[in-house]
Write a structure and sequence with these properties.
Length: 539
């Protein structure tokens, strides 16, 4: 029997309609509309040139006739959807099969790059959104069977580093009491002013006479310090990277990668510069500079080398980028084609901007002017769990508002608190019954048919639906599905808790209900681990 219910329904529909049918099957989140629903009749109506309801009724009739042990009802509803109601006995059969050992496939190596924050300042909230998104993508791929390599790209080269160096030297001069004018594109934030004063405190005025030597030296020290701080902050988010790649170390690899592209005829010279000009479906007739007319590499040139390396060592490559880099995506896809890496194995996740509400007010952010909220401040205020969960509540590509007041509230209105409280309740029940430390429940000896109440069956359906949720999300990276499911799962358990006396009464029924509580606890813990959320035993 299939453990992935959604996939099983898809297989049934393909057997009825045809293997080339394109449609969706989704878990139904609204009560009274079945357990799963499909748009297959709406899709087929266009092909068959019939009314969608007529097609839906035909499909429903055939499925009810051929698969009665699986669905106790299949209904056609306007304007042409199919709603599937799973049979109770079928659910219990799947639940029993759920305790059979499963062998996780070995799918190769997956490279997941995320955060890669701008190295010229402390990590701000917009950069930080990449952390939970990229980390959960990595967790899902590892759960699926990939050996995941978590990567951080430290882009410590290029024009922005030059602006940063000039800005740092300017604020050092100011600290020395010297006259200096900051470039209009220079960095004005409090953090860089403090760096300038720190340089003065360490060196005084003795390095004023050797700017060519010390300007570069203090810049490297500052960049290394900020990288160290950013990686430490990532660890506080629950993130540890396997690889940290510095752009400044790629010079040899960049020359080698560009030489290979030139050999393939994908580089051209124009206006004294060298351009990447693949003329493919990704870039079309557009071209991208890789070497400027003065002989210096642009950021994109080093990105070519970095991705050429990733494409060589990984079977799946995932980039998590902020929306300000979305225009970079066609160029990255062109690089994949240039190095013969399959597009289906190159995924790019783009996240939208973050608006922060603090004390009921929207906080504006402008990095060079220094008017921005640091990720560290947000993390200090709301904690790791709320930080990660709230960043995962929206579709990655959508803009989001982070409500700090809600994130730190100790109430059921805070979804993180609500989820953790449900888990703690389950732990409390099991502890009271002696099934946490002293002994464990043997699921194979449970009389599952004794569970007949609607709240019990609803909880079983949620437990069995999690594999679907994980599978779908590991394929499309719509991570908000995970957070929504966690809230629904906690709500389902809360209804069960409020209407069911678990301990007491007939022994076999008590054991079955305790087993259900234990299954909820195990399942919720697995989901929270994938999201990087802790599961406290008591609250």
């Amino acid at each position: 029997m299939e453990h992935n219910i959604r996939t099983y329904i898809e297989d049934i529909l393909r057997r009825e309609i045809g293997s080339d049918a394109s449609f969706s099957v989704e878990r139904q989140e609204m009560e009274g509309r079945g357990d799963y629903s499909s748009n297959i009749a709406l899709v087929r109506a266009k092909v068959e040139r019939r009314l969608p309801m007529a097609v839906a009724e035909d499909i429903a009739s055939r499925i009810k006739e051929k698969y009665p042990p699986i669905f106790y009802k299949v209904e056609a509803v306007a304007p042409g959807f199919l709603n599937f109601y799973l049979d109770r006995q079928y659910l219990l059969e799947i639940l029993r099969d759920n305790f059979m050992p499963h062998i996780k496939p070995k799918l190769g190596t997956a490279s997941v790059e995320y955060i890669s924050a701008n190295p010229t300042g402390p990590m701000h909230v917009g950069n930080a959104r990449s952390g939970p998104i990229g980390d959960v993508v990595a967790n899902l791929l590892a759960d699926r069977g990939y050996k995941v390599v978590r990567e951080y790209f430290h882009n410590d080269a290029g024009a922005q580093i030059g602006r940063f160096a000039d800005s740092l030297w300017h604020w050092y001069l100011i600290a020395c009491g010297q006259e200096s004018t900051l470039d209009e594109n220079g960095y004005q934030g409090q953090y860089i002013q403090e760096m300038g004063r720190a340089v003065y405190a360490k060196y005084g005025i003795k390095i004023l006479s050797k700017p060519d030597i010390y300007k570069d030296r203090i810049t490297k020290i500052a960049l290394a310090t900020m990288l160290k701080d950013n990686l430490a902050l990532a660890r506080r988010m629950g993130i540890t990277f396997d690889k940290v790649i510095a752009e400044s170390d790629l010079e040899v690899k960049t020359k080698r990668a560009l030489a290979l592209l030139n050999k393939k005829g994908l580089l051209t010279k124009k206006d004294g510069a060298v351009w990447f000009a693949p003329k493919d479906d990704n870039l079309g007739e557009r071209e991208a500079v890789v070497i400027k007319s003065d002989g210096t590499y642009v950021y994109f040139a080093n990105d070519i080398a970095y991705h050429a390396e990733k494409f060589k060592r990984a079977d799946l490559v995932v980039d998590e980028l902020g929306e300000n880099h979305e225009g970079h995506v066609p160029k990255l896809r062109a690089i994949a084609d240039a190095f013969d890496f399959p597009q289906k194995d190159f995924k790019v996740v783009v996240h939208g901007q973050v608006t922060l509400k603090k004390d009921g007010q929207v906080v504006s952010m402008a990095k060079r002017k220094g008017n921005f909220v640091m990720a560290e401040e947000l993390l200090d205020t709301v904690g790791k769990d709320a930080f990660r969960f709230f960043m995962l509540q929206y579709a990655p590509r959508s803009a989001m508002t982070f409500d700090m007041d809600l994130a730190r509230a100790k109430s059921k209105d805070n979804p993180v608190y609500y989820i953790q409280y449900a888990y703690a309740r389950a732990s409390s029940i099991l502890k009271k019954a002696g099934y946490v430390q002293r002994r464990k429940i043997n699921y194979k000896k449970v009389s599952w048919p004794l569970l007949e109440a609607d709240t019990e069956l609803a909880l079983i359906k949620m437990i069995l639906a999690l594999p679907d949720v994980i599978t779908q999300t590991s394929e499309d990276f719509q991570l908000q599905r995970m957070s929504r499911f966690a809230i629904d799962f906690a709500r389902s358990f809360t209804k069960f808790y409020e209407t069911t006396h678990v301990i007491g009464g007939q022994p076999d029924l008590e054991y079955a209900r305790l087993a259900l509580v234990s299954l909820f606890r195990d399942t919720m813990r697995r989901q929270c681990e994938l999201m990087g959320i802790s599961t406290p035993e008591s609250m």
